Structure formats: structure tokens, C-alpha cells
UniProtKB/TrEMBL annotation:
Molecular function via GO: glycosyltransferase activity
Superkingdom per UniProt: Bacteria
Name of the protein: Glycosyltransferase family 2 protein
Keyword hit for Membrane: yes
Keywords annotated in UniProt: Glycosyltransferase, Membrane, Transferase, Transmembrane, Transmembrane helix
Biological classification of the source: Bacteria, Bacillati, Bacillota, Clostridia, Eubacteriales
InterPro entries: Glyco_trans_2-like, Nucleotide-diphossugar_trans
Enzyme Commission code(s) on record: 2.4.-.-
Family affiliation: Belongs to the glycosyltransferase 2 family.
Length: 353
């Protein structure tokens, strides 16, 4: 089976060498691999690195480079789908690392009858500095990040609602179409909802693994969390079915904190005290857990401050998204629906060739 491995990038020159090395080291026959790279008009050396990779002789079936000027992730993924010709289409983020057998393992499970496959996607960090390891500890903690099953390696095959770095049979996109370009950050949640609604299952396999790079600085991590929360708020107006209650936990925390502060201003302190005790217990327990299960660094003492900072930032993002939602929905038109159908037609057209 031929495979199209797709990656999109915007100003990712600092991290692409590692992923390109991982792709070139894949043990699946290179003459059956098509590499599709989408650059969103980067201002750094991203496009230059893509061209250097294309001109390297790794024996791939093809290396395609596409430029996308429509701005968001969903539109870039759609551009990748439009030119991908493989029987299997694999999506990999620029901030990622994949082992040598990544393509081979996905193909094996798809040939066994699955339609969408993937595996655990734990976080890693570039460099071994104590501060970076502290940020990694916060990101990997259930308390600091997410309970999503795909973040950890499953012990047995299981079917999940969403996955990172997934592999899809071509027929899946031929049936459901492309990504919703109205969305940012949550385009994969919405896509996977449509895939499940169409009758396909997303299989998380214990022998498949890939890695996502944690943001290396606290400001970048805060920016990421705010953006995630912001798009959760907006996505509620487009596809609430693709979201879970857990996506709104930081929002509930921020609203509870705000309400408790307001009551406290009127002399009613009990709510703020109870919230502080409850949150403080979770904060302390998870900090201690990080210190026990991971290699300890003195900077871990800052985790009790990092955790609430991430939660509050995410929650504020959701609040802003919900406030903007009515105005944002008015600006939407049918262009995204047209793009979804256009991708479907292109996938079908490329299949017939």
C-alpha cells in the first residue's frame, strides 16, 4: 500500500530537522512513501528546509511542497489532502517525533481491517535543562494538561474519540471530506467527530507511538493554553458534539474563582476559602506525584504556581471565546462547507487515477 505522510508548518525551521530525519529513517519501503509538506508562507527558513529535504535522495515515491496562504491549520491540512495520492494518509505535526517503524505499524493495523489507527502520544522536550523538564512535567501531568487517552500509551487496543498523528485509509476522507476551515486548534476534534458519525472507528494501538514536543518556554506554553481554551469556546457554536465536559473544566474553575472573589468582596469568604483548599490539595498532590515518579529537579517547586497559571490561562481563553462566539458566528459563510466538499472531490478524483 502506498502512504502519503503529510506535515504542515509555519515558521518551524527550528524543529524540522528532527522530523525530517525521522521520516527519512522509516523502515517502510521508501518507494511506496509520498511526503507532502505544506508551508504557510513562513518568514523563517522553513520553506528552504523543505526544499533541501525534497532535493535529498532518500528514494521516496515523491516529495511534494505546497504553499498555503489561507492562514489556519485546517486550510493547510486541506491543501495536503488535495495533493495526497497514497492509499493511506498519515498526519504528523511539525513539533513531533516518530520512531523508525511508525509507518510500518500503522499500515499493518490498517491492513488488518482498521480504518483509522494511531497510538499513544506522550510529550518530549528538546534539551535536558531543569526548567524544560519542569515544563514537561507540568504538560504530562493529568492535572496540568489533559486526561485524553491518546496522550499515554495504551496497554491494549482500544477505540477512542480523537487521536494525534493518526493514519487514515483514503476512503475515510473520500466519505467525510476535508477539515472545517472555520476552526483553529479544534479542527481535528471536529474531523474525528464526523469520521465517527460516518461509522468509522479510531483505533489506538499499543505498539504504535509518536511524540509531541512540549513548548520550551513558559510564555509559549501559556500562549498555547490560551489558544486552546479560546478555540474550545468558539467551537461550542460550530460542533458542540465534538467536545467533552473535560474541555470546560478550566472555564468552570475560572468562573468559580471569579464568583468566589466577588462574594469575598462582600464579606462572604467561605467560597473562596473552600475553593482554595480544594484546588490547593490537588495542586500539592500532583506536584508531589511529579517529584516522585519523575527525575527530580529543584525547579519542580515552581509547579504549584505553574499549574494554576496554565488552568487560569486556558479558562480565560474559553471565556473570551464564548464572549466572541455570537459575533464570530455571524461572520461565518459557506466557504468551509465548500472546502470540505472540494477536498472530498479531489480525494475521489486522485483515487481514480
Amino acid at each position: 500500500m502506498t502512504v502519503s505522510i503529510c506535515m504542515i508548518a509555519l515558521n518551524e525551521g527550528a524543529v524540522l530537522n528532527g522530523l525530517f530525519r525521522d521520516i527519512s529513517n522509516q523502515d517502510y519501503p521508501h518507494n511506496q512513501i509520498e511526503v507532502v509538506l505544506v508551508d504557510s508562507f513562513s518568514k523563517d527558513n522553513t520553506l528552504e528546509m523543505m526544499n533541501d529535504f525534497k532535493n535529498s535522495h532518500y528514494g521516496f515515491m515523491d516529495v511534494k511542497i505546497v504553499q498555503n496562504n489561507r492562514g489556519n491549520q485546517a486550510s493547510s491540512w486541506n491543501e495536503a489532502l488535495k495533493v495526497a495520492t497514497g492509499d493511506i494518509i498519515i498526519r504528523v505535526d511539525a513539533h513531533a517525533s516518530i520512531p523508525r517503524n511508525f509507518i510500518t505499524k500503522n499500515v499493518m493495523h490498517l491492513e488488518e481491517g482498521e480504518s483509522v489507527t494511531g497510538g499513544g502520544r506522550p510529550n518530549i522536550v528538546l534539551g535536558e535543562s531543569p526548567w524544560k523538564q519542569t515544563l514537561l512535567a507540568a504538560e504530562e501531568s493529568l492535572f496540568g494538561s489533559s486526561i485524553a487517552s491518546y496522550r499515554r500509551r495504551p496497554v491494549q487496543k482500544e477505540y477512542v474519540d480523537s487521536m494525534f498523528h493518526a493514519a487514515y485509509k483514503r476512503e475515510v476522507f473520500a466519505k467525510v471530506g476535508g477539515f472545517n476551515e472555520d476552526l483553529g486548534r479544534t479542527e481535528d476534534n471536529e474531523m474525528h467527530y464526523r469520521i465517527r458519525k460516518a461509522g468509522y472507528k479510531l483505533c489506538c494501538c499499543p505498539d504504535i507511538i509518536s511524540y509531541q514536543m512540549t513548548r520550551n518556554t513558559l510564555p509559549n506554553m501559556i500562549k498555547q493554553k490560551y489558544g486552546n481554551g479560546y478555540w474550545i469556546g468558539l467551537t461550542l457554536g460550530v460542533c458542540k458534539e465534538c467536545l467533552s465536559y473535560f474541555h470546560f473544566v478550566p472555564f468552570v474553575f475560572v468562573m468559580a474563582l471569579l464568583g468566589s472573589i466577588i462574594f469575598s468582596c462582600f464579606g462572604i469568604h467561605i467560597f473562596l476559602i473552600l475553593l482554595g483548599i480544594a484546588y490547593g490539595m490537588f495542586d500539592l498532590v500532583n506536584t508531589v506525584s511529579c517529584c516522585i515518579v519523575r527525575k527530580f529537579y529543584p525547579q519542580f517547586v515552581l509547579l504549584p504556581l505553574i499549574f494554576p497559571l496554565l488552568h487560569i490561562t486556558y479558562g480565560i481563553g474559553t471565556v473570551v471565546g464564548l464572549i466572541k462566539l455570537p459575533f464570530w458566528k455571524k461572520s461565518l459563510n459557506d466557504s468551509s462547507k465548500k472546502q470540505i466538499e472540494e477536498v472530498k472531490e479531489k480525494i475521489i478524483s486522485n483515487t481514480k487515477r
